[in-house]
Design brief:
globular, mainly alpha, single chain, about 130 residues
Length: about 130
Amino acid sequence: MKILTRKNKELFSIFYIFFKISGFTIGGGYAMVPAIERNLINKKFISEKEFLKLLSIAQSMPGPIAFNLSVLLGSKLRGFWGALFASIGVLIPPFFGIHNNNIGQTSTEFRDRGGDQNSNNRKIRINIFTGYLV
């Protein structure tokens, strides 16, 4: 029995495309659009006409363009699971970037300030929690 079927490989491919683009693109969602287009059209996942149609829908939706586009493209390619894998792929790199930045900031504050141990621990917990909300 094969564990990874063709559909599962395609889901992981979709995830990897969006993860890679989100992790290495600097400049926000609109900077990601040409990279997403190039990757999906070169791999013959979608035609240019379909991509532009979904891009125009994503631009009219409220929220970040990269996330909206990932949900629409993933849904078009593999339905619900495609949308889920694509959106998770787009969200993981910035989530951990913010999280790691926040941890570094709080550990520096903890080291530099000294003083009451309990108040510093409270500040670290608050900063970590607010980092998850950003």
